[in-house]
Amino acid sequence: MAHVEHLLSEHTAEELGIRDANAFLVGNLVPDVYVGYMVPGVSHLIDYKVTHLAGGGQIPLPDYQRFWETYIAGRANVSSLTLGAWAHLATDHVYNERVRTLLAQRGREIDEETRIAKQADFALFGETLPLAADPQANGELVRECARFPQYEIAEPDAQRTVAVARRIIAHNDCGNRLERPSYQLLPGDFLTSTFAEADRLIASGLELHAVESDQADDSDGACRLL
Predict the structure, then answer these.
(1) Is-contact 97 61, C-beta < 8 A?
(2) What is the reported pTM?
(3) Residues of the chain whose pLDDT is less than 50?
C-alpha cells in the first residue's frame, strides 16, 4: 500500500493507466488474500505457488512477467485490480530477489530461519512507511474482484481484505510508525533502496501499459469511424 501511495504521489493515475485508484490499491493485496495469513476467515485457500505464480522453497520469486503476459499484455480494458495484483507480484519479486542475493553474498542459507527473519524485517519496514489511503469495498471493487481473471474473489472476502487494509492504515496513522526499527537480517538502507527499485519497476510497467492502452483505444476509435 505504501508503494501505491508513493506511485500516485509521483504520477497521475492516468499516466499509469489506472482507471480506479481504489481498485488498484486493493489489487496490490489480492495475491495474499487466499494464502491464509493476511486475511483471516476467507472462504477458501489457494496455494501460494498459484496465487503468486511462484516455485517452491523459502523466499520464492513470483513470476510477475508471466502474469503480465497472461493477463495484461495486448488486452483491452485491463481492470485496475488486475494491474494492482501485477504490481504486488513485481514488488515481491524485487524484494525477494535482492534478499536472495544478499544472503548469497553473506554465505547464508535460504532456510526457514532466514525466511522468518526476512518477514519480520519486512513487517518492521512497513511500519516506517506513511499510509493515508482510504480503501472502500464499493460496488466497483466488488465487480472487479468477481471478474479478476486469475480466479474469482468473493464479495465477503473482498470486504474482509478492505477491513484488514483499513486496520493496517489506522495502525500506522495513530502514532505507531517506527522511526528506528531494530532489523534482524536486513539493513535499513537495503530496504529503502529496494523500495526505490521496486517503485521504478512498477512505474515503468504501468507507464508502458498506459501507452499501449491509449494506442488500442485510438485504433478502436479509428475502426469505428471507418
Answers:
(1) yes
(2) 0.92
(3) 221-226
